[in-house]
Every structure is written in structure tokens, then in C-alpha cells.
Amino acid sequence: MTEENRRIKAITRFSYGSGNLIGSGALAISGAWLLYFYTTFCGLTVFQATVIFSIATYLDVILNPLMGFITDNFYQTKLGRRFGRRRFFILIAIPCMIIYPLLWVNGMSFLVLSFYLYHF
Predict the structure, then answer these.
(1) Which domain holds residue 113?
(2) 48/68 Cα distance (integer angstroms)
(3) Global pTM?
(4) Is residue 1 situated within a structural domain?
(5) pLDDT tens digit at each of 120 positions of the chain
(6) Which residues, 6+ apart, have CB-to-CB distance to 41 below 8 Å?
(7) What domain count does the chain have?
(8) How many CA atoms lie within 13 A of 120 on its CB side?
(9) In a domain, 2, yes or no
């Protein structure tokens, strides 16, 4: 059977498509709740809250391939040889994880804080 004649079964398509179902579902629920929280408790308009998510999404389009390139070649640097290709960036992300609950505190400057915390 040649590659041109081979048909991909529906179960194979479904299996590839469902690879990140749990992660994407959790992100969608978190984003929906965050939008509700911003509009109800923080006083942002729906437009302002969705602009935060939109800017983060557009930056993801640019920064994800860039960070992939950087981490793939990071082992060539002194820090990369000391910490490994990915561990250095995980260590940098730990403070963001610790201050992530600040997203849910009312009365803070959310346009800047939420952009930085939610995006990373």
C-alpha cells in the first residue's frame, strides 16, 4: 500500500485530536472564570478583559517559537551546561507560580498584573 492510497481511520484522527483535551479544557475553564471575575468583581469591561486575553494570545504566537529556539540552543551557553536546557527556565517560572494567586485578589491593578501572570 502506498502512502497516497493509505486512509487514516477515524479512531486515529480522534486519538491525535484528543491529545491535549484535558489541558485545553482546564485552560478554557480557567479563562472563562477569569473573564467572569474581571468583569464582575474587578470592574473591567468585557472589552478590557478580552483585550488582556487577546494580547496574551498574540504574544504566544510570537514568543512560543522564539522560546523553543532559545531553549533548544540554550545548552551551548554556560548557564545551559550548568542547569540543563529547560531547568533554568523552570526555575525562573517558579516565582510566577507563587504569585499567581494574586490574580484573584480584588483591588489590584489588574491590567498589568494579570497580563504578566496569566500570559506566563
Answers:
(1) 10-119
(2) 30
(3) 0.56
(4) no
(5) 566 678 889 998 888 878 778 878 888 898 898 899 889 988 889 999 999 889 988 998 999 999 999 989 998 999 889 998 889 999 988 988 877 777 676 666 656 666 666 665
(6) 106
(7) 1
(8) 16
(9) no
